[in-house]
Amino acid sequence: MKWAAPAAVLVLLLLPLVLSSYAVTIFILIFFYGFLGQAWNIVGGYAGQLSVGHAAFVGIGGYTAAMLSIETGLTPWIGMFLGGALAAVLGAVIGYLGFRFGLRGFYFVLLTVAFAEICRIAVSNIDAVGGALGLYITFTGNARQFQFQDNRVYYYVALALMLLATGVVALLERRRFGIYLTAIREDEGACEALGVNTFKYKMLAMVVSSFLTGMGGTFYAFYLFSLQPNTMFGIPLSVEIILRPIVGGAGTLFGPILGSIILTPLGELSRLYFGQSGLHGLHLVAYGALLIAVVLFLPQGAYPYLRRLFKGSRA
Amino acid sequence: MRGHSPRRHPSDIGILVHERFGLALDLTLVLQGLLSGLLFGGVYSLMAVGLTLIFGVMRVVNFAHGDMMVWGMYLAFMLATRAGVDPYVAFIGCAAALFVLGFVVQRALVDRILDAPHEMQILLMLGVALVLENLALVAFGPEPTRVRSALSAATIWLGPIFVDVARLVAFGVAIVLALALYLFLFRTDLGRSMRAAADNSYGARVIGTDVRRVYAVAFGVGAACVGAAGALVAPIVPFQPPTGLSLSVTSFNIVIIGGMGSLLGAFVGGLLVSVAESMGAVFLKPSLKELFSFSLLILILLFRPAGLFGRRAP
Amino acid sequence: MTPPLLEVTALSKRFGGLQAVRDLSLRVAEGEIVALIGPNGAGKTTAFGLISGFLAPDAGEIRFRGRAISGLAPHRVCALGMARTFQIMRPFPRLTVLRNVMIGALGRHAEPRAAAARARAVLEELGLGAKAEHLAGSLTLAERKRLEIAKALATEPALLLLDEVMSGLNDTETARLVAEVRAINARGVAILLIEHVMRAVMSLAQRVVVLNYGERIAEGRPEEVAGDRRVIEAYLGDESVDAAPA
Question: Were C38 and a residue from A218, C42, C83, C246 both cysteine, which residue would form a disulfide, CB within 3.0 to 4.6 Å?
């Protein structure tokens, strides 16, 4: 099966040549949410620290790049990394407070939610960054400013991001860092007894995860051309981020990707279909039901289940 | 003889000016806020007691707590508009309906993951919250709703301060319900087995308690608390499906301040937080009120996660 | 005279109203096997927690290889050469047996392949080689005990703290584990063990320290201690002592 992944990448690279513009849009979202989910996977899946506030990093990353572009004309290609860096700083702060003060499980979830909401409310109230109305990016179609005339370019950028995040995770998985994370998720005290500096590794996971997520914020901002605090920092986005890895398989390499392949088209199509008849939110009901089903019946996610199924049928 | 005029202007009663802070503190405004907050706190207490009961008995944090309360509000709305029942009577029906919901959720869903890692429990309840919030969105739309009650416009004047009769009644009913809950837990057999199961589920099983049923009832009772709380609050504040999240967070705030699993802590915490929010509204921009409560939550998480009365951590 | 490997002086720890450990002093020399025994609640596991860095002492000093270690985080203590097992075993249930032991080995061999090789060697030593790819959650009790030791051993300690590793095992399993512990010691690893299974204490320990109510009440060779009246009195109220000296 070693050729499966490169073959899939090849197919993905060629796909835009045959797909309609609308289908390309769906794939952009699949890749984008796959990217965010993979970034979350590092700290939420592998390290087992459930964060429901990752939207804060998207917001910080996006707003940073957008403000820099609007105020100083700095190209978002650089702004993306600065945004990521700032998001990583916030990630370090949250991580430091959470891990130094021993916040686990439910308490850590609350900490992440609280920080995300504080960011959201703060940004909503600061007029200099657009306040509650948000920021708008004027369309120039200039590639230097991370804007492209052709949808297909966004497709490739999103794909590159998803492959980047997946590559990072694949690298981490093999090395001591990733192996330590999987044990930290199981039992931190036992890890400490075996010489693992759990604080250090959890912090690293948090920083890497928030940096990548922050980069995603830039893509989000310049793909949508607008930033609203409620969208970019809000809980609904945080939930969307974690849904894909959890449904697909948290702590696995392909989980977030599989989750995105399953959920994103579902979300988009039902948003399209039901949104027209005025039934806002039905796709979120489906998301919720799916989350419940996964927790009850497939707690490890779709990917490990499918892999077992596949291995079983080959024996 | 100003005491009898129906509309008093706060500025008539002596304004305290703190030159140092440049703040104009109006005493009546402060007292008003204090009283309003205290009365509203009864509902907060009821809400928090429900959450802490569920946690105390089965160590599950009900992430869907606020969303269940919103459903209590919408049920009150439906009963008021379709059946003409005043929310201050309908709260009984809302409590009953939410009891059933809680019972079913526990039996069908929560029961299966009681021994699972905490993350799974959180995610499950998050899923339930998503379903509840968005079903409400589909059924009632995103616009804010308000319920009219016969008591809505009534006010009583205590000197310079006015009291919303609605809030007063809500407070009264909430206290009565909290007392009823106390009696249930400490004076009835079922209540006692619930407390036993909370303390030691293995021991409770050994003496023949049907622990599963106790858990389901506990969850039902917890949900009934917010069902009633929702109905009581529906005439006082406008609500919409996303309100569920902020109510959940407020519940967590209160329960953490008061101590996870402590009923007294939840009760006192509810009053405290409500007064604090009210005071916050007096001095701060309304949109910053939430900023304040989230910051408070972080501080509590870091420095006193056991809360005022708490004994155990989740 | 070389300093002892582990030197504990006047160690004390109180939990609320309970003085769990009172003025405890003991030492372990390089390559020695010392047993820490005493009735239930005597403070033995608390002592382990203090020594290995999981608990902070109220008073007293702990020196390992001449260096003061009280207050150091557990992972630092482990890095310095002291590893421990837990009375209630803590495997990583969803990881394979090999991965479990690798976590210990990775401290000294950062490269996963080298760590895996080292882990396999340790597993072979403890007779778990065949189970390397099994999930840790699927092992039998005796196997889990050996896994617990393997994990600690993989950190290449100079001193191994074993907390009641013999409990719950039948005679054959106990004998086997005693032999394995002796073999580990023969390689130069000093061992400080908490035990209730007297058969194991008598066959393994070169020196025995007896605790009661957090205080050291006796110390000496196993035969000496077994006959000590204070020790017998301390145990008289305690039913969990298992078998006479072998």
Answer: C42
